[in-house]
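REQUEST ID: PR-0412
SUBMITTED BY: lab tech R.K.
PRIORITY: routine
TASK: structure prediction, single protein chain
INPUT:
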Amino acid sequence: MLKSHRAIALMIPIFLTAVGVHSAQAQPNNLAAASKPDECNSLITTANQAMTNLQWAVLDSTNSSDSNQALLQIAEIADQASATMQTLELTDGQLQTFRDRYVTIYTSAAQANRDLVTAVRQQNSQAAQQAYETITTSTQQEEPLINEINSYCQVGG
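STATUS: complete
OUTPUT:
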C-alpha cells in the first residue's frame, strides 16, 4: 500500500467488500430482464464485475511508483463501472434505485480521486481533505447498499 496517499486505502472498502453480492447466474448487461430474479442477477453480476475490476486496480496501484497516476487509474475504472451500471435496463423500480445508487457511488469516488490528485499537485491541503472526506463518504455507502440488494433479491423476497 502506498504510504503517501491514504485515499487508496479508503478506496479498498468500496472495491474489496468481502460481503459483496453474489450471483450464480449471469445476465447480459444490455438486455432488459424479464423477471425480478433475472434483473437481480443482472445487477449483482454487474456490481461484482465492477468490484473485481476495481479490486485489481487497487492492487496494481500498490506496485505503482506514481501514486497520483494510480489514483487516476482507479478513477477511470470507477467511471467505467458507473457507465456499465448505467447500461442496465431494469424494469423493477427498486432495482433501478439500487443501480442509480451504485452509479452515484462510483461517480463520486472517481471524481474525488481526481480532486485529490489535483489538490496534491497544487499542494492544497484543504481541497485534499475535502476529497478525502468525499471518498470516505462514498465508500461507506456501498456496504449498506449491498445488504439491501441481497435482502431484496433473496429467493422468495
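NOTES: The mean pLDDT is 79.
REVIEWED BY: pending
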